[in-house]
Specification:
Blueprint lengths: L2 E6 L6 H14 L5 E5 L6 H4 L8 H8 L9 H12 L1 E3 L2 E5 L10 H15 L4 E5 L5 H5 L4 E2 L1 E6 L3 H12 L7 E2 L2 E8 L5 H12 L4 E7 L2 H9 L11 H13 L2
Parallel strand pairs: 1-5, 1-7, 2-4, 2-5, 6-8, 7-9, 9-10
Antiparallel strand pairs: 3-4
Helix pairs in contact: 3-4, 4-5, 7-8
């Protein structure tokens, strides 16, 4: 059975960084093949993995407005183009949604992806969705059951509160979440008591477990500034060791 891992959290809390580090982890653990779906309008997961994107779902939608090849239905054309949009790498594939249909709307792109998601899922052990700030994408993509929801936060009271609110809205959206984890990124070390108190409170008042408190890392900053793939991080780097232990706990 394919397992769904979804990232959630307000902008700038490290969802994409977490997705890239999770990609590295699953490859090292040989939990392959898996599919990455970059569902953020500001798509940049490919950059952290050192990949170029040639076509997105948003661009495919524009093509659908034109004339289709003869004897090809819209559904057949869309399925063909989605497979063309897959960036195929050793052990995993990447699909980028790109720009939405209008301000804040992914309706058509999500609809087309949902049409082929079941067929795509048959080929993968995991589907990892790097989501934008809200949770609506997941319901629109027909992902009603999520095995692991990783809610990211920055080390602030507002960030922790937002993470809790995101966790709270999963039920009204009709999403079945089997496991929810709070990840606090770029935290100071040691963690200030006031921040720890906010974390403990959010965990106690929600369906989330504490997945991990991840310290800030110069290695990640330097890797991004240099344009190097996160997949090339050293196994013994402190941040790699920390997140691998965290993922071991979450996915055990």
């Amino acid at each position: 059975m394919t397992k769904i891992i979804a990232m959630a959290g307000k902008g700038g809390t490290g969802k994409t960084t977490t997705s890239a580090l999770l990609t590295r982890y699953l490859l090292k653990k040989r939990q392959t093949p898996f599919l990455l779906v970059d569902a953020d309008a500001n798509a940049n997961l490919n950059e952290l993995l050192g990949l170029d994107v040639n076509i997105t779902l948003g661009q495919i939608r524009k093509e659908l407005k034109g004339e289709l090849p003869p004897n090809v239905t819209r559904d057949q054309f869309m399925e063909m183009k989605i497979h063309q949009a897959l960036i195929e790498e050793t052990g995993y594939d990447l699909l980028v949604m790109g720009q939405p249909d209008g301000p804040g709307c992914y309706c058509a792109a999500n609809q087309y992806l949902a049409m082929t998601m079941d067929k795509l899922a048959e080929n993968y052990k995991y589907i990892i969705v790097d989501n934008e700030a809200g949770m609506e994408h997941l319901s629109r993509m027909n992902m009603r059951t999520i095995d692991y929801l990783l809610v990211t936060s920055d080390p602030s009271a507002r960030g922790i509160l937002t993470a809790k609110r995101i966790s709270d809205i999963t039920e009204p959206l009709g999403l079945e979440i089997k496991n929810q984890f709070l990840l606090v990124n770029r935290a100071p070390h040691p963690v200030p008591p006031a921040l720890q108190s906010k974390i403990d409170e959010a965990v106690a008042d929600s369906g989330m477990q504490l997945g991990g408190i991840i310290p800030s890392s110069e290695s990640l900053i330097n890797q991004e500034l240099s344009g190097e793939s996160y997949l090339n991080l050293d196994d013994n780097d402190d941040i790699v060791v920390t997140v691998n232990e965290m993922f071991d706990k979450i996915f055990s």
